[in-house]
Amino acid sequence: MAERRVELNPGEVWWAAPDASVGREQAGRRPVVIVAGPEYLELVGTLALSVPVTSTNRNWPNHVPLAGPHGLPRAGFAMTEQPRAISRSRLERRAGTVDEACLIEIRCWIHDFLGS
Fold first, then answer.
1. Which of 45, 66, 86, 91 has a CB 3.0–4.6 Å from the CB of 76, allowing a cystine?
2. What is the rounded (10 degree) CA torsion for 51, 81, 86, 115?
3. pLDDT above 70 covers what percent of the chain?
4. Is the pLDDT at 9 greater than 90, yes or no?
Protein backbone atom coordinates (compact mmCIF):
# COMPACT_ATOMS: atom_id res chain seq x y z
CA MET A 1 0.00 0.00 0.00
CA ALA A 2 1.39 3.38 -0.95
CA GLU A 3 1.73 6.01 1.75
CA ARG A 4 -0.64 8.93 1.35
CA ARG A 5 -1.44 11.95 3.42
CA VAL A 6 -5.05 11.91 4.54
CA GLU A 7 -6.25 14.99 6.44
CA LEU A 8 -7.60 13.91 9.82
CA ASN A 9 -9.10 15.46 12.92
CA PRO A 10 -9.38 14.05 16.45
CA GLY A 11 -12.66 12.22 17.02
CA GLU A 12 -13.29 11.31 13.39
CA VAL A 13 -14.64 7.84 12.63
CA TRP A 14 -13.13 6.15 9.57
CA TRP A 15 -13.57 2.80 7.85
CA ALA A 16 -10.14 1.15 7.89
CA ALA A 17 -8.56 -2.01 6.54
CA PRO A 18 -6.05 -3.06 9.23
CA ASP A 19 -3.26 -5.50 8.44
CA ALA A 20 -3.18 -9.12 9.48
CA SER A 21 -4.10 -9.59 13.11
CA VAL A 22 -2.83 -11.92 15.81
CA GLY A 23 -4.76 -13.38 18.73
CA ARG A 24 -7.56 -11.14 20.00
CA GLU A 25 -6.61 -8.11 17.87
CA GLN A 26 -9.45 -6.84 15.75
CA ALA A 27 -9.22 -7.80 12.08
CA GLY A 28 -11.07 -7.10 8.84
CA ARG A 29 -12.50 -3.88 7.51
CA ARG A 30 -13.87 -1.99 10.47
CA PRO A 31 -14.45 1.48 11.83
CA VAL A 32 -11.82 3.21 13.94
CA VAL A 33 -11.91 6.39 16.00
CA ILE A 34 -8.98 8.77 15.55
CA VAL A 35 -7.68 9.53 19.05
CA ALA A 36 -4.47 11.43 18.23
CA GLY A 37 -4.30 15.13 19.00
CA PRO A 38 -3.96 17.82 16.32
CA GLU A 39 -0.22 18.19 16.90
CA TYR A 40 0.44 14.49 16.28
CA LEU A 41 -1.79 14.50 13.21
CA GLU A 42 0.08 17.49 11.80
CA LEU A 43 3.58 16.20 12.62
CA VAL A 44 3.17 12.54 11.70
CA GLY A 45 1.65 12.79 8.25
CA THR A 46 1.47 9.11 7.31
CA LEU A 47 0.20 7.53 10.56
CA ALA A 48 -2.85 7.89 12.77
CA LEU A 49 -3.42 6.84 16.38
CA SER A 50 -6.77 5.09 16.59
CA VAL A 51 -8.92 2.60 18.47
CA PRO A 52 -11.08 0.00 16.74
CA VAL A 53 -14.86 0.02 17.00
CA THR A 54 -17.00 -3.04 17.62
CA SER A 55 -20.76 -3.42 17.29
CA THR A 56 -20.79 -6.07 20.04
CA ASN A 57 -21.82 -4.74 23.43
CA ARG A 58 -19.79 -6.75 25.92
CA ASN A 59 -20.85 -4.45 28.77
CA TRP A 60 -17.20 -3.74 29.51
CA PRO A 61 -16.79 -0.35 31.18
CA ASN A 62 -13.86 0.56 28.91
CA HIS A 63 -15.87 -0.04 25.71
CA VAL A 64 -17.12 3.49 25.19
CA PRO A 65 -20.45 3.80 23.33
CA LEU A 66 -20.04 6.10 20.34
CA ALA A 67 -22.00 9.32 20.69
CA GLY A 68 -22.45 12.04 18.12
CA PRO A 69 -22.90 11.87 14.33
CA HIS A 70 -20.59 8.87 13.91
CA GLY A 71 -22.15 7.81 10.61
CA LEU A 72 -22.18 4.08 11.31
CA PRO A 73 -25.22 1.94 10.44
CA ARG A 74 -25.58 0.68 14.02
CA ALA A 75 -24.35 1.32 17.55
CA GLY A 76 -20.62 1.09 18.06
CA PHE A 77 -18.25 0.81 21.01
CA ALA A 78 -14.68 2.16 21.05
CA MET A 79 -12.32 -0.59 22.21
CA THR A 80 -10.02 1.53 24.35
CA GLU A 81 -7.82 -1.43 25.31
CA GLN A 82 -6.55 -1.67 21.71
CA PRO A 83 -5.00 1.68 20.68
CA ARG A 84 -2.69 1.45 17.70
CA ALA A 85 -0.87 3.46 15.11
CA ILE A 86 -2.06 2.64 11.62
CA SER A 87 -0.94 3.87 8.23
CA ARG A 88 -3.24 6.53 6.83
CA SER A 89 -3.22 4.55 3.59
CA ARG A 90 -5.39 1.97 5.42
CA LEU A 91 -8.13 4.58 5.94
CA GLU A 92 -10.75 4.04 3.24
CA ARG A 93 -13.47 6.59 3.91
CA ARG A 94 -14.68 8.93 6.61
CA ALA A 95 -17.94 7.89 8.27
CA GLY A 96 -18.50 10.76 10.73
CA THR A 97 -17.32 11.95 14.14
CA VAL A 98 -17.90 11.32 17.81
CA ASP A 99 -18.84 14.21 20.05
CA GLU A 100 -16.32 15.86 22.36
CA ALA A 101 -17.56 14.11 25.52
CA CYS A 102 -17.17 10.71 23.84
CA LEU A 103 -13.63 11.50 22.66
CA ILE A 104 -12.68 12.68 26.16
CA GLU A 105 -14.00 9.44 27.69
CA ILE A 106 -12.06 7.33 25.15
CA ARG A 107 -8.86 9.26 25.85
CA CYS A 108 -9.37 8.95 29.65
CA TRP A 109 -9.50 5.16 29.37
CA ILE A 110 -6.33 5.12 27.23
CA HIS A 111 -4.61 7.42 29.72
CA ASP A 112 -5.60 5.13 32.60
CA PHE A 113 -4.34 2.05 30.75
CA LEU A 114 -0.98 3.74 30.15
CA GLY A 115 -0.64 4.22 33.90
CA SER A 116 0.29 7.87 33.66
1. 66
2. 110
3. 85
4. yes
